[in-house]
Amino acid sequence: MSTPVPWARERQVAEAAVKLAAKLTKRVQSTVTEVSKADASPVTAADFAAQALLTLHIRRSFPHDAIVGEEDSSVLRSDAALCEKVYRLFREASDGGCSVEDMLDLIDVGGKGLGGEGRFWTMDPIDGTAAFLRGEQFAVSVALVEGGEEVVGVIACPNLKVHDGVISEAVVDEELGVVLSAVKGQGTTVTTLRLDSTESDPVLLPKLPAPESLRDLHIVDCPIGNPPGREIMRRLAAKVHAPFPGTDIWSSHVRYAALILGGGNVLGGWGRGDGFGWQGV
């Protein structure tokens, strides 16, 4: 008898859930127009619907696992119009077997914010909301934590397309982007998704080599939001004669994807206040 692969079922469930949420969020993003960009309701509705969808699929397979989401249902319970919009999105993406109250209860499962020292799932239904409204890069992510350590992680980047070896905020995939899946001790795979629900075979990514020279550093950073951190990265690049800017992406999760897919080898990690640092691979 073959030895079971650790966390194989968890990875399978996380991938299936994230792919469905990626399709839902991409569909909503395609409806955002210049007129509606000032209105955040499209991303709000997509965020709630994706959280409910992710929670539904995880709870069906692992009903006793805790889940940490972003929102509870209080906003929807006090806004009938928004609730109806969210339910319509959720129903279209799921099998239609849940009522409105079922959906709200699913959202509340993650809205309790209960993690702890044991086993729990955590999710970010839409990372990069500002870029989402601009039609640019965003991510849908799920992770399983056991004993304070991530053991499974799945990130979908529905707009991500590697163009001539370059990852860009503005280069948007007309299909469904990519899904990156990682399991502790088993490496990371990348799968290309298409809108017709077909996909490529997963490819195991090799470990990125260290740059031969500091001049070869390719910096992945966020162009706005932290001017002191941005200045540190500019000075670092100038000191080692590396190009700057490198790859500029708003969504933090897409920035990690850019590193993994070879779009960079240094990522700035700036905390609040005086908490500065950097990460590299």
TrEMBL record:
From what superkingdom does this record's organism come? Eukaryota
InterPro entries in UniProt: Inositol_monoP_metal-BS (IPR020583), Inositol_monoP_superfamily (IPR051090), Inositol_monophosphatase-like (IPR000760)
As one GO molecular function, the record gives:
metal ion binding
Which residues does the record give as Mg(2+) binding sites? 70, 124, 126-127
The cofactors required by this protein are: Mg(2+)
Q: Magnesium: is it a keyword of this entry?
A: yes
This protein's UniProt keywords: Hydrolase, Magnesium, Metal-binding
Decide whether keyword Transmembrane is in the record.
no
Q: What does the entry give for GO biological process?
A: sulfate assimilation
Q: Which family does it belong to?
A: Belongs to the inositol monophosphatase superfamily.
Instruction: State the name under which the record lists this protein.
Output: 3'(2'),5'-bisphosphate nucleotidase
> Which organism was this protein described from?
Ophiocordyceps camponoti-rufipedis
Q: What does the organism's lineage look like at the top?
A: Eukaryota, Fungi, Dikarya, Ascomycota, Pezizomycotina
